[in-house]
Amino acid sequence: MTATFSKPLADTPGAKPGSPSPPGRPPGRADLAADLSASLTVFLIALPLSLGIALATGAPLQAGLVAAAVGGLVAGYFGGAPLQVSGPAAGLTVVTAELIQRYGWRTTCAITVLAGCCQLGLAALRTARSALMVSPAIVHGMLAGIGVTIALAQLHIVLGGTPQSSALANVRELPSQLADIHPTALGVSALTLLLLIAWPRLPGRAGQALRKVPAALAAVGTATAVAAVAGLQLPRVDLPSWRSHALPELPEGPVLGLIAAVLTITLVGSVESLLSTVATDKLIASERPTGSRPPRADLDRELRGQGAANIVSGALGGLPITGVAVRSVANVKSGAMSRKSAMLHGFWVVLAAGLLVPVLDLIPLAALAALVMAVGVQMVSITHMRTVTRHREIAVYATTIAAVVLGGVLEGVGVGIAVAVALALHRLARTRITLEERDGVHHLAVRGQLTFLAVPRLSRTLAQIPHKGHVVVELGGSFMDHAAYETLHDWQESHLAHGGSLEVNGPPAEPGARAVPASRTASASASGSGHHCCRPWTPWKNHCDHQPVGDRTHPEAAPVPSASADAGRAGAVTDRDPAGEGAGAAATPRSRGASRLASGITAFQRDTAPHVRDELARLAREGQRPSQLFLTCADSRLVTSMITASGPGDLFTVRNVGNLVPLPGAETGDDSVAAAIEYAVDVLQVDSITVCGHSGCGAMQALLNSAPGEPATPLGRWLRHGRPSLERMDSPHHAWARIAGRLPADAVEQLCLTNVVQQLEHLRAHESVARRLAEGTLELHGMYFHVGEAQAYLLSEGEDFFDCRVFDSVGRRT
User: Fold this and answer.
1) In Å, what is the CA distance from 791 to each residue of 7, 107, 739, 743?
2) Cβ atoms within 10 Å, residue 414
């Protein structure tokens, strides 16, 4: 048996044996059939929506069909999101309508071409991800504002009238429109809306069969059929001959106005497309196993595809194009497997535009207006409101909606950004500083970021603390600038020099840093060394011991050993050693560990426990249900939760020296590993078992250096379970492992890799494991963690060689 060390844990396929082959495989007939079926579904949704959006913008109705066809064929082929469907979108309706009113249709087509060129430029500069830095509250507010504007405009058509030029004008004219309702148009619109709402809720088997037809097509089709059979006199779709189709002309108008128009189309179209791409990726990840997913979206390539599509659409007299979430969701849920689905949908639109013109001309405009009005209402999402409210950004959301409705899309986005920046500055400047005395101890609590804006209040509060007392400082923020650091540091030195004691909890203790234990800083400052430990970048802090806790350089600043139940006083720095010089020196080793333990518990109770309490309470009620048995080494450098991004209840972890799995029946006085395997497999019913080795393993080094005749010590007896790994490495019948396409650096690394493979063989010998493997309900994985590189590798099956491919932090192969 041979294997391959493959990609990192974060990119590991979770599909079970027999699942579809990974991305990049040649497409089969089943994939083509799935793409064909999905393309028809998307086409049936896109056809009425494209006509409706063209109607809402005031553009020629053919322009919607042109944009839908180009979005499918061009964006589908060149884009970076295989399952995203592009075409005319409601998000650009208001912008396009305003441009058509101001510059005319042909100039608007030229603006679309220029916007596509700008998108190509942005893609060449690889700025796609920069578009995602816009606050979601602004984006959702922009879309909601556009939805309100669309709904107000289409309401007039639903009532049988004509929309006005702005949202305010539509609101002003609404009373007079309500006084002059056209019953025929209202009846057709009401029928369309009723079917849109009721279609997804049709009960029974018949309803299940009917629901396969998209609600938009069913609603518009039924309304069209009723209007035709009843002979209703209504304005209908009018598709003139393609020979008279309007093409772009050179832009005419104020240069600054044209530039602003191009930038608006570029900004709104790019942001909407990229957000739709991210949403489509998340939908695919949530609904499909890893092995049947297409490649993840390339945002820069997607932006390039959108730019090419807008150039072609504008040149052919079509509407601006973006990625459309509704059609993309339908494409994914219909089982599409590749970009062929989006391209086929564009092909069907071309056929419909050429062959179904007499049928399309029967559609009442009131039915299309009702459809687009429903889309506009859906853009004001209750879910988005709850989300932004939960993140305390409802002010940004509401302001953006109001600005879009009152001023326009570009103005609304600008106002939203300004409000978001102002809110961020307000939160940055809002620092709460409180001082209270409890049981003779002064507690200074700082909540929020410590910047120069808070220095005057901080200085006044510090001046109220008496000398020679004990002070507990709680820093609840995550950032401290230089001015605040100097203020706190100067007061700290003065307080210690006057005989006071001090304990500082929480980050940060130096400007710009986030997590230096301040109690150490106090000790170092008092000793006169001024030395700081490594600048931390993780939640855990005790990974360096340059400054001994019991440093006696300054006899007036020795830490008090504390093992009491009051964890808040652990590690306090006092003015003298109350136990005397000798007692203090003797207790230093014990106090260091006790202080760290107590400080760690304090930090957990303060910072972490509030966030995990609900989840742990649920686990306490329901019991543990881990998905994986994780067997790894006891080495202190392996933080399993960190390298697997797991949390409480995820892993059933077994650690021992050398990540060894004794063979069943082997002579051993320790059955703990076998008991853990039996419990995890038979009782907890885990889905997989992972054996994780690591670089620089001391057990493997000891195994290499051991001699057969050495006296039997507990460590030696345990390491006998690793001898099969040593024999495997020396055997000429097994290929040597390779890591990242290279041979291991030395014999220790070679043995570490070989040991993972050998322990997997030992696992297969356990009865419970063998049974579950035979049933196909259990998977075995090998993993290797290179400590120095902070890189995890998975062991995957190969034919006759070991190999390892390196992936970067986002899972792309390098």
Assistant:
1) 10, 54, 11, 16
2) 15
Tokens 């556009």 sit at which residue? 146
Widest distance between CA atoms in the chain: 107
Rounded CA separation 415/419 (Å) = 6
The whole model's pTM is what? 0.54
Where do runs of H (alpha helix) occur along 379-514? 382-390, 394-406, 409-429, 455-463, 482-497
pLDDT for 24 = 42
**Cα end-to-end distance, the chain, whole Å:** 27
Cis peptide before 508 (omega within 30 of 0): yes
**What is the rounded CA–CA span in Å between residue 523 and residue 529?**
9
127-138 burial code (b ≥16 CB/10 A, e <16): ebeebeebbbbb
Q: Read off the amino acid at residue 602.
A: T
3-class SS shares of the chain: helix, strand, coil, % to 5 = 55, 10, 35
The catalytic site residues sit at 633, 635, 637, 694, 697
Amino acid at 160: G
Which residue's entry shows tokens 């059933």?
Answer: 652
Q: Is the pLDDT of residue 453 over 90?
A: no
Q: How far apart are CA 77 and CA 340, in angstroms?
A: 8
User: What does the alpha-carbon distance between residue 159 and residue 341 come to, in Å, rounded to a whole number?
Assistant: 37
pLDDT digits (tens, 9 = 90+) for 497-534: 888 888 887 654 444 444 333 333 333 333 333 333 33
Q: Which among 329, 326, 377, 363 is positioned nearest to 193, based on CA atoms?
A: 377
Burial 677-714 (b: 16+ CB within 10 A, else e): beebbeebebebbbbbbbbebebbebbeebeeeeeeee
Asked if residues 574 and 561 have their Cβ atoms less than 8 Å apart, the reply is: no
> How many CB atoms sit inside 10 A of residue 159's CB?
19
Whole-Å CA distances, 82 to 279, 305, 323, 505, 660:
13, 11, 11, 50, 44
CA trace torsion 339, 345, 351, 356 (10° rounding): 180
